[in-house]
Amino acid sequence: MCGIAGYIGYRDAYPIIINGLKRLEYRGYDSAGLILYDKETIKLVKTKGKVSDLEEKISDEISVSGKIGFGHTRWATHGVPNDVNSHPHYSESENLVIIHNGIIENYDTIKQVLIKRGYTFKSDTDTEVLINLIEEIKNKENVKLGKAVQLALNEVVGAYAITVFDKTKPDEFVVARLGSPIAIGIGKDNKEFFVASDASPFIEYTKNAIYLEDGEMAIIKIGREVRVRNIKSDSLVNPDVLELKLSLEQIEKGGYDHFMLKEIYEQPKAITDTYRGRMLVNEGLIKMAGIDDNLQKFTTANRIIIVACGTSWHAGLVAEYLFEDIARIPVEVEYGSEFRYRNPIITDKDIVIAISQSGETADTLAAIKMAKEKGAFVFGVCNVVGSSIARESDAGAYTHAGPEIGVASTKAFTTQITVLTLIALKLGLAKGSISKSAYHTYLQEMELIPKKVESLLAINDKVEKIGSIYKNATNFLYLGRGFNFPVALEGALKLKEISYIHAEGYPAAEMKHGPIALIDENMPIVVIATNKGHYEKVVSNIQEIKSRNGKIIAVVTEGDTTVKGIADHIIEIPETEEALTPLLTTIPLQLLSYHIAVMLGKNVDQPRNLAKSVTVE
Ligand code: AGP
Q: How many other CB atoms are there within 10 angstroms of residue 109's CB atom?
């Protein structure tokens, strides 16, 4: 959601900013803009639309010279997406300029005060209010930009990642963060700096970066070390300079048409990376420091509450089945957005597991903060290393999926399930709720999953063909039971978000309680009917669909003969333990959505209205 890419140093800023914005496109946005500072002048261009529209506008309007500048991709909150509301925003005097991710909740109150003091506003945004507040404080208190930013931020309520530039002090940026990430790339000898929402815009220039913590601001000045301080307490902070592990190759498409397809195909490796070093099959061991160090807490917990959103919530639902079945621990799965406002009953005997690819989802983050305050132990399952949720958690396990850039989560989901399966097995063994032989069988089966995922990727053409038959359907139903009920939800979500076809996921048995009314000869129904766990019941559901002329796309286990005789299309998955089937059944559903969306000409990697990490409520 919204992206920031900026540069200050000795190189031409424009290519760094524009390429940086392109790398941040995955976050989701509806407008883009930038400033370049050159020859004592700020050049500002912004537009509704894509970064490519911005490039076009720039080529018509300005020369791209300048060693200082920053750009922004905006995902509209306050004010419709249009040229005027796009960032950057000037202050009244046009000496100051800002880009902002997040929301200033009390902007209207501040705006009314500023209007009375003679400020005028061109846009409907909260951001323009913030830059004018900074200017008002700077002038009134006669302080430097850094101090003015700090004082202004102490007056606002909300969330932000901001970069501010003052044309009267053109060798520095002021940046600050609360609830929205900001990374500062540090060039050699402090001769150049980069600011961005994540490290992808500057990865080829430097491997050293500071990630600001919530409530911190920094003054970035050419030729000097970055100065970080706490916005509230004003105390200086000694920031950690991290060595980035990210490579350019990881954030490029690598020959695939879309990031989503690349990420679908990366799953065998991503799953292997997730269990590598943790699952020692020959020794019969699962090593996970975050669990090992807190084993007693987990084995004596009253219950586990899982909080997450979207696809990560679906992974949480799979975990509910895993933990209850294998580890015999009661589990509740909650949407972060509901949980945080529900005044839930939480005790210090509860463990909260937060699942999040980005580690930045605002509702999940707020939910764990609240759970911690109420005494719960919080365990984070995140993909992005050093993300807010990872840092806020008491302990955790990274999924090691590598950067996921397609807005539709794919490898994040399967790697989350992998981590959660390892945890369930580890706890099951520790509690004695699973036999040693069953535990060993699971480990052996788990090790075979990447190869089995590969075999499913090999039937891509078949899935594409099925997609071509149903691409013009207006509704889809996805059905599954047990471990595969969450997969049905996930399959439906994937289709909705990238093809804009309405789709619903249901537990197969619930079909009779409503959705069956929708079924006719135009309705494709994807049914997951693997051979273990409620197979006969699902077969009955398939019969019921058939009797109403629905079109059946069945995901079955290899060698199935019963469903073959009834369904219109069969997709076979290799045999495995029932609890591990979500890692396989998901794959063809991802491919099906992908192909339908491509055939419909949709923007698969950046679907309309969606953001990769949802950093606002
Ligand atoms: C997944 O395809 C979606 N784009 C979305 O539901 C996502 O899973 C959700 O926003 C949660 O994100 P997180 O895992 O980064 O917290």
A: 13
